[in-house]
């Protein structure tokens, strides 16, 4: 049996005492092809009463580099982030679709970069935050891909290519990913490795894990004393029932808020 994967570094972020609520969202997969989802997100971001919005990855369907932020749909998203960050804290941890979001763009928007995982300390609780893809250990093909594209050498070489070439490469990657997803029933999509998740939580002294990535919102006990909250994906443009949900932390605990029209 192979040894368990090495533990990550657990960075901590302490919420100020005067915060009243913290919102968590993930997996919006925003693109020019999802105008309704974008409008629901923009309205939520500009109207939320939370002290902070924490985005746990895959805000964008694709992100090919921070130089794409100046035009078109990406520029509209950047405007929303900057407008929101001018009035409340916005924090961002990258996901598997937008792992190339860089410090330059986040600084321009006033958005705080979050490491994955991060321990959030607030309202008397300790919560472990992650996009979740690093915990999907049984998805061996994806884990190999993740290791490659997260390497500094790969990112340096990729970002050195012209913008139009990067966009073409990423479109091809996305199409392959979507074909692979369509060939697998949703109930068979790889979930996080629960034993590893509990190991992370034990080492970080966090009884609650909040993550996205799997597109299967849930409240689940992983082991005695350890539970997870899985964030909903957002989709107000597809043929099914619209989905747009926020997980909110207040002094009384966690609640889910449905935003879909």
Automatic annotation (TrEMBL):
It catalyses: UDP-2-N,3-O-bis[(3R)-3-hydroxytetradecanoyl]-alpha-D-glucosamine + H2O = 2-N,3-O-bis[(3R)-3-hydroxytetradecanoyl]-alpha-D-glucosaminyl 1-phosphate + UMP + 2 H(+). Substrate binds at residues 96-97, 139, 177, 181, 213. It comes from the Bacteria. GO terms for molecular function: manganese ion binding; UDP-2,3-diacylglucosamine hydrolase activity. GO terms for biological process: lipid A biosynthetic process. The keyword Lipid metabolism applies. Its cofactor is Mn(2+). Mn(2+) 2 binds at residues 58, 96, 131, 213. Mn(2+) 1 binds at residues 27, 29, 58, 215. Hydrolyzes the pyrophosphate bond of UDP-2,3-diacylglucosamine to yield 2,3-diacylglucosamine 1-phosphate (lipid X) and UMP by catalyzing the attack of water at the alpha-P atom. Involved in the biosynthesis of lipid A, a phosphorylated glycolipid that anchors the lipopolysaccharide to the outer membrane of the cell. This is UDP-2,3-diacylglucosamine hydrolase. It comes from Piscinibacter aquaticus. The lineage of its organism: Bacteria, Pseudomonadati, Pseudomonadota, Betaproteobacteria, Burkholderiales.
């Amino acid at each position: 049996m192979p040894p368990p994967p090495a533990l990550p570094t657990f960075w901590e972020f302490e919420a100020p005492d005067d915060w009243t609520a913290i919102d968590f969202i993930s997996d919006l997969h925003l693109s020019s092809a999802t105008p309704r989802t974008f409008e629901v997100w923009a309205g939520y971001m500009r109207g939320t009463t939370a002290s902070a919005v924490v985005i746990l990855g895959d805000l964008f369907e694709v992100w090919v580099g921070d130089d794409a932020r100046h035009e078109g749909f990406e520029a509209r998203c950047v405007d929303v982030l900057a407008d929101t960050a001018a009035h409340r804290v916005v924090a961002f941890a990258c996901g598997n679709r937008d792992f190339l979001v860089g410090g330059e763009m986040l600084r321009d928007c006033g958005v705080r970069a979050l490491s994955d995982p991060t321990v959030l300390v607030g309202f008397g609780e300790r919560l472990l935050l992650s996009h979740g893809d690093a915990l999907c250990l049984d998805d061996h093909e994806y884990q190999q891909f993740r290791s490659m594209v997260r390497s500094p050498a790969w990112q340096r070489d990729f970002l050195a290519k012209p913008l139009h070439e990067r966009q073409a490469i990423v479109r091809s990657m996305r199409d392959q990913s979507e074909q692979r997803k369509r060939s697998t029933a949703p109930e068979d999509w790889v979930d996080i490795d629960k034993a590893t998740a509990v190991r992370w939580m034990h080492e970080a002294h966090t009884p609650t894990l909040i993550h996205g990535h799997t597109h299967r919102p849930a409240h689940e006990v992983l082991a005695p004393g350890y539970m997870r909250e899985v964030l909903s994906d957002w989709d107000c443009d597809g043929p099914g029932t619209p989905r747009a949900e926020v997980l909110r932390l207040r002094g009384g605990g966690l609640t889910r808020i449905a935003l879909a029209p």
